[in-house]
Amino acid sequence: MDVNRIHMDVNRIQFTKIELQIAKHAFKHYKDKYNARQLARLLNINHAHTNKLCNLLVNKNILVKEEIGNSAYFSYNYHNDLSIKFIEYLLSMEEKAFPKWMVILAHSLNKFNQYIQLGLVFGSSINTKDFRDIDVLLMYKTNNSKDIQRIKDEIRKSELVEKPIRYVDITEKDILLNKEDKVFYNILANSLIFYNPERYVEVIKNAANR
Known about the structure:
Elements: H1 3-11, H2 17-28, H3 36-43, H4 47-59, E1 63-68, E2 71-76, H5 81-91, H6 103-109, E3 118-122, E4 134-139, H7 145-158, E5 165-170, H8 172-178, H9 182-189, E6 191-195, H10 197-208
Parallel strand pairs: 4-5
Antiparallel strand pairs: 1-2, 3-4, 3-6
Helix pairs in contact: 2-4, 3-4
């Protein structure tokens, strides 16, 4: 099944809004397994309904289920081509889901796209408009460092983004070296993608499988 077909399936409401929410959370949190009660609390949804939807997602090969003691735990299915294409499509819509107060920021960050492999925004700015600064992760090859610095200076001098931006600059190798680090894991798992969701999926998949 290709991405266009997945697009059609979502539009036909074969996946509910809450199912999409569960799937995206499970994919991003590659180190964790959740029972339905934990997911319900984290996502602020009904526990009984969550359990039913998790099992539906297992049947659709999006989640995998593991019985541990008396509880069933769910995690993302990183080994299924359909589930990977599905999450690629789902995450491709994240840039459109940026909060209204981040529209100018998102436009400014697009200047990096030619030189980076992946771009994320994380921290308090993605959750509330009352934030002190903006946290941005840029993954790129070291030979693009000068261009990255030039764009950072351009964004700062333009003063279109009123709050200060704090950058985390990494290479893909850094992700694999630090994938078990709690702070770094929190950045990857709790962020919005502004550039290259397909690469993000690849990065998370590799981290989950190593």
